[in-house]
Design a protein that fits this description.
The protein is an alpha+beta fold and about 240 residues long. It has six helices and 13 strands. The chain has helices at about 45-60, 95-105, 130-135, 145-165, 210-215, 220-235; strands at about 5, 10-15, 20-25, 30, 35-40, 70-75, 75-80, 85, 85-95, 110-120, 170-180, 185-190, 195-200. Strand 2 (about 10-15) and strand 3 (about 20-25) form a beta hairpin. Helix 1 (about 45-60) packs parallel to helix 6 (about 220-235). Bound molecules: cytidine-5'-monophosphate.
């Protein structure tokens, strides 16, 4: 019997009969302001899953260790069970979002080098910023594990920036999460979709990510379908 382990903001995690394998279900839901704003969007789960599966398969093909096993259906994947680090790794290539508001900057300037930020995942605390020594003090991860995860973030950025560019989109920023398999190996987990990255059209700077929901700019599902169509085209050609 499958057991529901966790309902997140946009996904559910189910324990399968295999203790090392989970089933992820992408829901037709979007949230903003750390879950304080929530809305139903028909077809959004399917589009986010399709995009994330494509990206994970592309990363695996290029040597990134991940939790992804296979896409099961339009809205479901099988993934390896791992112990998650309660950390969010944000990489920024362009000024946007909280980097703009925090430092009083206008969105859109390319950063001279990627900005790397870590946040402690905690709904009660609103995911506060945490630095390396804070992470060590809280016993969340070792220096070595942090170095491995940041190294993977840099590799993911180096692979995905040109991939999205080929698809006519600028990878402005993104958030990654990592987990540990039973043997201690660190793998990329969670998802990679417009829910956790910013994508701007290369020509027009049109937003093609969850900001269309956060800022009420356009239809969310249609936007994700557009990203999927563009990605499918370039991944096929790759
Ligand atoms: O909000 P902020 O500018 O810090 O977000 C940076 C990037 O991280 C964005 O792509 C955003 O979608 C992602 N993010 C996320 N989950 C969070 C916070 C940020 O996916 N809890």
């Amino acid at each position: 019997m499958e057991k529901l382990l966790y309902t997140g903001k946009a996904k559910q995690m189910w324990q399968t009969d295999d203790p090392n394998v989970l089933r992820v279900v992408y829901m037709d839901q979007a949230t903003a302001l750390n879950g304080k704003k929530k809305e139903h969007f028909a077809g959004k789960g399917q589009a986010a899953n399709a995009i994330s599966s494509l990206v994970f398969q592309y990363l695996i093909k290029n040597g990134i260790p991940t939790h992804f096993i296979e896409k099961l259906s339009a809205t479901e994947d099988l993934v390896k069970k791992c112990q998650m680090f309660p950390l969010e790794f944000v990489t920024r290539n362009v000024v946007a979002g909280h980097f703009a508001t925090r430092y009083g900057l206008k969105e859109g300037k390319a950063l001279p080098e990627p900005v790397e930020e870590t946040f402690y995942k905690s709904d009660e605390l609103d995911d506060p910023f945490i630095n390396e020594s804070g992470t060590i003090a809280l016993g969340i991860a070792s220096h070595e594990q942090l170095a491995t995860m940041w190294q993977l973030c840099r590799q993911v950025n180096a692979l995905l920036k040109p991939l999205f560019e080929k698809a006519g989109m600028q990878l402005v920023d993104f958030k990654l999460e990592f987990g540990r398999l039973e043997d201690g190996k660190i793998v990329l987990a969670d998802e990679f979709s417009p829910d956790n990255c910013r994508l701007w059209d290369l020509q027009t700077d049109q937003h093609l990510d969850k900001d269309v929901y956060r800022r009420k700019l356009a239809n969310l599902t249609k936007t994700y379908d557009e990203v999927l169509a563009r990605l499918e085209k370039v991944v096929k050609e790759d």
